[in-house]
Every structure is written in structure tokens, then in C-alpha cells.
TrEMBL record, chain A:
This is Cytochrome C biogenesis protein. Keywords: Cytochrome c-type biogenesis, Membrane, Transmembrane, Transmembrane helix. InterPro entries: Cyt_c_bgen_Ccs1/CcsB/ResB (IPR023494), ResB-like_domain (IPR007816). PANTHER family: CYTOCHROME C BIOGENESIS PROTEIN CCS1, CHLOROPLASTIC (PTHR31566). The chain crosses the membrane at residues 57-84, 123-141, 214-236, 466-488. One of its GO terms (biological process) is cytochrome complex assembly. It is found in: Membrane. Residues 65-519 form the ResB-like domain. GO terms for cellular component: membrane. Its main location: membrane. Signal peptide: none annotated. It is a multi-pass membrane protein.
TrEMBL record, chain B:
PANTHER family: THIOL:DISULFIDE INTERCHANGE PROTEIN DSBE (PTHR42852). NCBIfam families: PRK03147.1. Pfam families: AhpC-TSA. This is Thiol-disulfide oxidoreductase. Residues 48-189 form the Thioredoxin domain. GO terms for cellular component: cell envelope. It comes from the Bacteria. The chain crosses the membrane at residues 20-42. GO terms for molecular function: antioxidant activity; oxidoreductase activity. Keywords: Cytochrome c-type biogenesis, Disulfide bond, Membrane, Redox-active center, Signal-anchor, Transmembrane, Transmembrane helix.
Length: 538, 190
């Protein structure tokens, strides 16, 4: 006879069992303490012998200790990740390593070295979360299934020792079957379900609240799976595009299928209208204007041709309208959000040519350079010819050499060759904002800036998130599980007749106060008033 | 006796079933975990990568005579070095002379060098091409569509594509003369 063979009924229980699965006799006979009712005394599934490597891995994750440790590590790591700002929130003008060192000293440097500056997307943080997910799954299976089986196949006839070692217990000597029936009818009124075997009764209610934690874990796992789906390109897009007024740009993340045109970018600031007078005090205390609204009037097109990338697309309008902050434009599961803007980028510049000595600067020729596509030569009826030799959209001098810092006309610089009529010898002029240089100081003609056009650039976020419904369902199931486990209790009452007396024991998985209260109600007007709280006795 | 045997058989059956279902669950869970972590590491860079077929495109060619458009698939049968660059990108400027110096030699061996500029205006590209005397095809990706199709993030980015159109190597950042030659050697058609 093994240690898990029941001495009362001879049933062979699985290793790790603490209460006989058949008759309910506690297997630790010598012990007189209250019974541990967790999982109704069933063996947790991982407690098996003859372990293969699969069983060993399984048992590792099945341990609550391991699960709690993982959660604790994740909590500590998450907390550390909030001590200094994450990398995405620091200015992108300086390198991250310098920023953390300069701003936060030695601790900042350690923080950076250990990778906490991008904690939440680091592989080890994800590994931690994934391991927690695996642990939750296996823990639930290993405990949920035995518990389900135990509660499904309950034997109303429990061994007397089982009842005697419950927290709420009472013995009654003088009673009639009538009294029992009365108690049972009271229990039925309280919506207990009653099963019977050989005159032994089990009254039970709220069993489904025991599934709460498992429903909750199921929701959590669906939630985690939802976050995993973000890595499927079809499910999740998070891109960004700058669109200049009047320009049409390909929308990133759509395989060159969609294009967006910026018809107009509008920005309104506080103080422009009379109704804003009430904010005058605040407005005047600010250095920069406060934006009230900014929006892009946009048109979305679809490329209906089968053309290769780089070839002229055949655009068909899909949608047009306003993209306002928090009011995205939606099409084909995609949403374009107004994100940011750059105001007053140069679009074109106008110049005139005049004699250097002319005090009135009378224009001899006038011309306009389109900065998005400058021509390299400008010819005029009066015989003048002007060549645009070099163009620097974002001019800067580096080691005496002119160059462009970026692609965009933020600070345009020009080298013009001026050919007077019938001359092959050009005069060289260099122009930039605030600069007009005659390198040889021998020029007869001078080019002057007469005007310019600017336009605004709108920054749009491209978003698609099909994972949200999955995450939402996961969160909803999670909440159902919480409610199920929190607001209901699993209450059981065993009634055990012996030759001369009646034993009654109560058990609830929580809220013993409620259980006692309920007992008082169902036992009113019956003989079975008093139940001993054996925990108090100890 | 018979009963004991039967029980034992049942036990073995149960054990085998347990092994199978535990293995299956562990495989699925660890598979999902691996997928998440690997995709997370790769998500930084959605660019077309080694081993993939290079996406075809067609762009305007700015230099060379009697040529207007160049289509990548026209170069099938040749090894192709595909370089994404811009005039305002310093490392791009530095590697251009290397490419020019190796171009004649490798053109003979059946390797074409194609440089795609993502500059906004043609004028700056033309100026640059004249300044550096570049003879290999210079294409202009004015609408950034090809850049989007390849998922280019840093400049320069260079692809080395074999004669079947399969990407053999991808280099993010600047090339040196020595490693450029090594890469070109890899895509000489056999």
C-alpha cells in the first residue's frame, strides 16, 4: 500500500493527493489540523515521477514560485525603466550615449550601458513577458484541469474525518429526518444545488466563481497574443510621412499602393480671433504663439496601374477631406493622423538683375527659381543669360566649402553665372539668405532677391492596428474573469448522518463572514443552529 | 493479474498522451515567443534583405547618352551593385570615387553599377555627377517610391545582386575600396 492509498476505502490516489479523491478521507491521518482545501486536495498535474526532459521543462513553468519570481523581476525592471526617460523621449539631436552621460552622470551611463534606455522593446524584456505568458498558461492547465475534475465528480458522501477537519463544523445529537429536510428546503431557497448519496448531502452554490482565475488568465493570454500580432505586417502599420503643400507623396507601409496629396495646410493660433480676448494674459506670457488648430486638407489616391515602383502611377481618388488633430482620415483600414508640421519652407525665390552702380537698382531682367525643380538656365529677350551653376537647398559652409545639409530648401544658396549679351565670359555671383557675394569683386551686374514664396509641410502619421479588437476581447475576458472570481463565492455544505448524530461542515473559497451569515439564515427555525469555527478554537 | 496489467497499460497510455500534449503545447508556446523576439529584433529594419529577390523598378536615368529609363530587370544576367545615395550625404560622396574607379574593370566582367539618388532636384545631382565624372548609370528616385519599396533607412545603403536578381549582400553605411572589391567579386556572373 503506497502513501497515496486511502486507508478508509482503499482507493489508489495519484501522487501528490492530500484528500482521497473517492471518499474524501484526508490522507495525512495523524494530522488533526484543518484541511488545506486548495484544488480540493487533488494532485497538481506536474507532481509526477519518471520525468523526461519535456516533463522537467513543464514542471519548471508549472511552479507558482517560478511564475511569481518572473513577475517580480518584470516589475522591478519596468520600474527601473521609468527612472530616466526612454530613448524615444530624449532629443534626437544628440547621441543617446552622450545624453545619458551628460544629463544623469555615472548612473545615466550605467543605465545606458545596461540597455535600460530602450527597455520595453529590448529582447530580454520581451523574453521575460513571454516567459510569464508561458508560466500563466501552464500553471492554469496544471491546476485548472484537476480542480475541474475534482469539482465535477464530487462525492456527496465524504469521510467523517473530512468534515471534522473543516473550518466550520458542528455535531448534533437529537434530530429527526424532518429537521434535515427543513434545512435542505432552506438551502434550496438560497439556490443551493443539492446532491445526495446514501442519506449524505452536499449543498453547493457559486461553483463557477472557481473558474474566475482561469478565465482571467485566458483573457491575459489572448491579450498577449494580440500584442504579438503587431509583428505581422498586415495587422499593424505605424509609419510617418512629410507632405509639402501641393505635393503628392507615396504613403509608406502600403507597398506603393496609396498616395496622399497635401492640398493645403492650415494653422490657427490663439489670439487671432476676437473670441480669444479672454486668453490675452496667457497668450502674452508665452514666447511662441499657441496653436489652436492645425489641419491638412488632403486627398488620398490609389495607384490603379500595375506599374513598377518609380514609374508614373495612375492615380484614382479614394477620399478627400480634412485631417485634423484627433480626427484622422480613414480608408482601407488605414488612418492618417495629423502629427506635426514645419511652417514656411521656401518654395520659390524671385530675383532681379541690375547694374551694380545703379542706385535705383533698376531691374534689367527678372526671373523666378522654382526650388522644387530649378532650371539650370534662364534666358532673356534682351540677350542676357543666367546659369544656375550650383544650388544648395540647405546651405552651410563647412571648411570653406559650400554644401547642403539636407534635401529641403530651408536655407537656399545659389551660385549664378551671369552672361551679359554677346559675352562668353560669365560673372559669378553667390547668393544666400543675408549674403550676396561677388567673389572677384569685379562684377558689373548684381543679382538681388525680390521676393519669395513659402509653403507649409505637414507631418502625417500612418496607422493601422487590426490587433486592437483582439487586445480588446482579451481585456474583456480578463475583466469577466476578475468579476467572476471576485463577486461570487463557491460555498459548500456537507451533511453527514452517523448512527446517533449528524455532522455538518461548511466550506467557502473566500468570504467566511458571508458564509457564516448565510448559515445563520438557512439554519434559522431549524435545530442546527450552532457551527463551531475551528480556526478560532485553535 | 490481468487487472494489474490492464491498469499498467492504461498508465503507459496516459503517460504517452501526456508527453505528446505537453510537447505540443511547449512547442507552440516557445514558437510564439521566438517569433515575437525575432520579429522585434528585425522590426528595426524592414528593408529588403539578403536572399530575397530584388524588387524590380524603373527610373529616369540622368547621365549617359540615348538613355531615358532604366529598369532593373533589363540587367538580368548581369551582377548589379545597387547604391542608394544623395548629394548631401557625406559618406556617399566618399565612396563614389571608389565605385567609379572599379566600374570599367567590373563592367567587363558583367557587373553593372547603378546609383539611385534620392535628392529632390535634378540640378544638384547633375552638378555632382559632372564634378565627380561618374560614368555608371545615375537614376533619380524623385518620388521616393523605390526607396519606399526597398525600405531604405540610412544612406548610403548598397545592395549586391547576382545575375538571377537575388540579393547576395546588403551594406548599410559607407564602403571602403577593399571591401567594395570583395563584394563586387561575389556577384560576377559565373
Amino acid at each position: 500500500m503506497g502513501a497515496y492509498t486511502c486507508r478508509a476505502c482503499g482507493f489508489e490516489n495519484k501522487e501528490g493527493t492530500s484528500i482521497c479523491n473517492k471518499c474524501g478521507n484526508p490522507l495525512d491521518v495523524e494530522n488533526k489540523k484543518l484541511l488545506n482545501m486548495r484544488y480540493d486536495g487533488r494532485a497538481i498535474r506536474s507532481k509526477t515521477r519518471n520525468q523526461s526532459i519535456v516533463d522537467k521543462i513543464w514542471n519548471f513553468f508549472s511552479s507558482i514560485k517560478v511564475g511569481v519570481t518572473l513577475i517580480a523581476i518584470a516589475l522591478v525592471a519596468s520600474a527601473i525603466g521609468t527612472i530616466f526617460p526612454q530613448e524615444i523621449y530624449i532629443p534626437n539631436t544628440v547621441s543617446a550615449s552622450e545624453h545619458y552621460r551628460d544629463q544623469y552622470g555615472i548612473f545615466g551611463q550605467i543605465y545606458y550601458q545596461l540597455g535600460f534606455h530602450q527597455l520595453y522593446s529590448s529582447w530580454w524584456y520581451m523574453l521575460l513577458i513571454a516567459l510569464i505568458g508561458i508560466s500563466i498558461f501552464i500553471v492554469s492547465l496544471d491546476r485548472g484541469i484537476p480542480l475541474y475534475k475534482a469539482l465535477k465528480h464530487q462525492n456527496p458522501k465524504k469521510h467523517a474525518a473530512f468534515l471534522k477537519r473543516q473550518k466550520l463544523y458542528g455535531e448534533y445529537n437529537n434530530y429527526e429526518q424532518n429537521d434535515v429536510d427543513q434545512l435542505l428546503s432552506h438551502l434550496r431557497k438560497k439556490r443551493y444545488r443539492i446532491t445526495e448519496k446514501d442519506g449524505h448531502y452536499l449543498a453547493e452554490k457559486g461553483r463557477f466563481s472557481r473558474w474566475g482565475p482561469y478565465v482571467n488568465h485566458l483573457g491575459l493570454i489572448i491579450f498577449l497574443l494580440g500584442t504579438l500580432l503587431r509583428f505581422v505586417p498586415f495587422m499593424y502599420i505605424d509609419e510617418f510621412v512629410w507632405v509639402r503643400e501641393g505635393e503628392t507623396e507615396v504613403i509608406p507601409g502600403t507597398d506603393q499602393q496609396y498616395y496622399v496629396k497635401n492640398e493645403k495646410f492650415i494653422i490657427e493660433t490663439y489670439g487671432e480671433k476676437e473670441e480669444d480676448a479672454k486668453f490675452d494674459e496667457v497668450i502674452s506670457s508665452q514666447e511662441a504663439p499657441i496653436p489652436k488648430n492645425f489641419q491638412t486638407n488632403a486627398v488620398v489616391f490609389q495607384d490603379i496601374s500595375e506599374n513598377l515602383p518609380g514609374m508614373e502611377p495612375e492615380l484614382k481618388e479614394v477620399k478627400s477631406g480634412e485631417i485634423i488633430v484627433n480626427e484622422p482620415m480613414k480608408f482601407d483600414g488605414l488612418a492618417l493622423y495629423q502629427d506635426s508640421y514645419q511652417l514656411n519652407e521656401f518654395q520659390s525665390m524671385s530675383f532681379k538683375l541690375h547694374e551694380k552702380d545703379d542706385a535705383n537698382e533698376k531691374a534689367m531682367v527678372e526671373f523666378t527659381v522654382d526650388l522644387t525643380d530649378p532650371k539650370s538656365e534662364y534666358t532673356f529677350d534682351n540677350g542676357f543669360r543666367i546659369e544656375l551653376d550650383s544650388y544648395y537647398p540647405d546651405f552651410v559652409l563647412e571648411d570653406g566649402m559650400p554644401k547642403s545639409r539636407t534635401n529641403y530648401p530651408r536655407n537656399p544658396g545659389f551660385v549664378f553665372f551671369v552672361y551679359p549679351p554677346n559675352s562668353e565670359e560669365p560673372e559669378v555671383s553667390f547668393l544666400a539668405i543675408g549674403q550676396n557675394i561677388d567673389p572677384n569683386n569685379q562684377n558689373n551686374y548684381k543679382i538681388g532677391l525680390t521676393g519669395f514664396d513659402v509653403r507649409n509641410v505637414s507631418g502625417l502619421k500612418v496607422k493601422r492596428d487590426y490587433t486592437l479588437p483582439v487586445i480588446g476581447i482579451g481585456a474583456f475576458i480578463f475583466m469577466i474573469g476578475v468579476v467572476q472570481g471576485m463577486y461570487w463565492q463557491h460555498r459548500r455544505i456537507w451533511i453527514h448522518p452517523e448512527e446517533s448524530k449528524l455532522l455538518i461542515a461548511c466550506h467557502t473559497n473566500k468570504n467566511w463572514f458571508g458564509m457564516k451569515n448565510e448559515w445563520e439564515k438557512v439554519s434559522s427555525n431549524t435545530k442546527f443552529k450552532f457551527l463551531q469555527d475551528q480556526e478560532d478554537k485553535e | 493479474m490481468n487487472k494489474v496489467e490492464k491498469a499498467n497499460q492504461q498508465k503507459r497510455k496516459k503517460k504517452r498522451f501526456r508527453l505528446i500534449y505537453r510537447t505540443a503545447i511547449l512547442v507552440v508556446l516557445f514558437g510564439a515567443m521566438l517569433f515575437a523576439i525575432v520579429s522585434n529584433v528585425l522590426s528595426e529594419d524592414e528593408a529588403v534583405d539578403v536572399g530575397e529577390q530584388a524588387p524590380d523598378f524603373q527610373l529616369t536615368q540622368l547621365n549617359g547618352e540615348n538613355v531615358e529609363n532604366l529598369r532593373l530587370s533589363d540587367l538580368k544576367g548581369k551582377g548589379v551593385m545597387l547604391n542608394f545615395w544623395a548629394t548631401y550625404c557625406e559618406p556617399c560622396k566618399r565612396e563614389m570615387p571608389y565605385m567609379e574607379s572599379l566600374y570599367p574593370q567590373y563592367k567587363e566582367k558583367g557587373v553593372e553599377i547603378v546609383a539611385v539618388s534620392v535628392d529632390m532636384t535634378e540640378i544638384v545631382i547633375n552638378k555632382f555627377v559632372n564634378q565627380y565624372d561618374l560614368t555608371f548609370p545615375i537614376l533619380h528616385d524623385k518620388s521616393s517610391e523605390v526607396m519606399d519599396a526597398y525600405g531604405i533607412k540610412p544612406l548610403p545603403t548598397t545592395y549586391f545582386i547576382d545575375e538571377n536578381g537575388v540579393i547576395v549582400e546588403r551594406v548599410l553605411g559607407e564602403l571602403t575600396l577593399e571591401n567594395l572589391e570583395g563584394y563586387l567579386e561575389q556577384i560576377v556572373p559565373s
